[in-house]
Amino acid sequence: MTRLRPAAGVAVVDGDGVVYAAPLPHGPIAVLEGGAAAIWIAACDGPSESIAERVAEATGARVGEVRADVDAFVRELLDRGLLESDPA
User: Fold this and answer.
1) Residues 27, 25: Cα–Cα separation, whole Å
2) Residue 87 lies in a domain
3) Is residue 57 over pLDDT 70?
């Protein structure tokens, strides 16, 4: 079972439905709101295999409606170096 976490050197502030994530010290800052924030929170809060299910539950959408977008955005967060696999 794979889990994700903020990448080493990435600072995260989460509040009022907005997530700010930035590689320190130079950024840039990613401002994640709405669905993007829901995906970040779900990605950092359980197995990566069920991120789409947790996003669907949090947003009231159907899993089939969000899975492709969730998977694509998680790949983008990994590619941008904001998320990484948790070795634990």
Assistant:
1) 6
2) no
3) yes
